[in-house]
Structures are given as structure tokens and as C-alpha cells.
UniProtKB/TrEMBL annotation:
Belongs to the class-II aminoacyl-tRNA synthetase family. Residues 2-113 form the Alanyl-transfer RNA synthetases family profile domain. It comes from the Bacteria. Keywords: Aminoacyl-tRNA synthetase, ATP-binding, Ligase, Nucleotide-binding, Protein biosynthesis, RNA-binding, tRNA-binding. PROSITE patterns: AA_TRNA_LIGASE_II_ALA (PS50860). One of its GO terms (cellular component) is cytosol. This is alanine--tRNA ligase.
Length: 113
């Protein structure tokens, strides 16, 4: 069994080897977005860049974003529902699309390394 810390590092290292810049998890309290209380997905802090703004890290990014979701808070406590989790994401800001994304995700999930 692989430890969560090792899995996170392997994910970051894998996409770094594919030319991605590692970016830190953003705050759980979103900046400049009064429409939500918490960061709920890995894409949330990247919305301005997904809409065309230039990201200082470049056009290929990888992150492990801390997230809080409360949509199903009444279900929290069973074996499958939680409020906090970390979302692993690789991001292309206009560089590559489905072919590379699917190929690399499959490679990461099936590689013995």
C-alpha cells in the first residue's frame, strides 16, 4: 500500500517530468470570489487563468489543492462522505488537450514506477 504523502509526491513528480510547474495549494478561503465560502475544487483558484489571464507558472501546471465541500454534509461520517479532501490536478492553459491528458493520466495510473 502506498502512503498518501508518497502518492502526492509521485503525482507532482510525474507531471513535472512532463513539463508542468508545481504550484502550491491555494487557501481554503477563496480570494476575490464572494460566491463561495470555501475552495471546492482544484480548478477554483485557477479560474482567472482558465479564462485567459496569464499564470506566472506558465501554461502547464500541476497541483494538490486542499478542498472543502459541504453539499452533502448530512452524509458526513459514513465510509464515503467527508468535507475535506485534496484534489490532484494537472492543468493545460491552452497547451494540450484530451489526447495528452488521457495518455499521461493512464501512464501515471498504470506505470510501475
Amino acid at each position: 500500500m502506498i502512503a498518501s504523502r508518497e502518492l502526492r509526491q509521485k503525482f507532482l513528480d510525474f507531471f513535472k517530468s512532463k513539463g508542468h510547474t508545481i504550484i502550491s495549494s491555494a487557501s481554503l478561503i477563496p480570494e476575490n470570489d464572494p460566491t463561495v465560502l470555501f475552495t471546492t475544487a482544484g480548478m477554483h483558484p485557477l479560474v482567472p487563468y482558465l479564462l485567459g489571464e496569464k499564470h506566472p507558472g506558465g501554461i502547464r501546471l500541476v497541483s494538490i489543492q486542499k478542498c472543502v465541500r459541504t453539499d452533502d454534509i448530512d452524509e458526513v461520517g459514513d465510509a464515503t462522505h467527508h468535507t475535506f479532501f485534496e484534489m490532484m490536478g494537472n492543468w493545460s492553459l491552452g497547451d494540450y488537450f484530451k489526447k495528452e491528458s488521457i495518455t499521461w493520466s493512464f501512464e501515471f495510473l498504470t506505470s510501475k514506477e
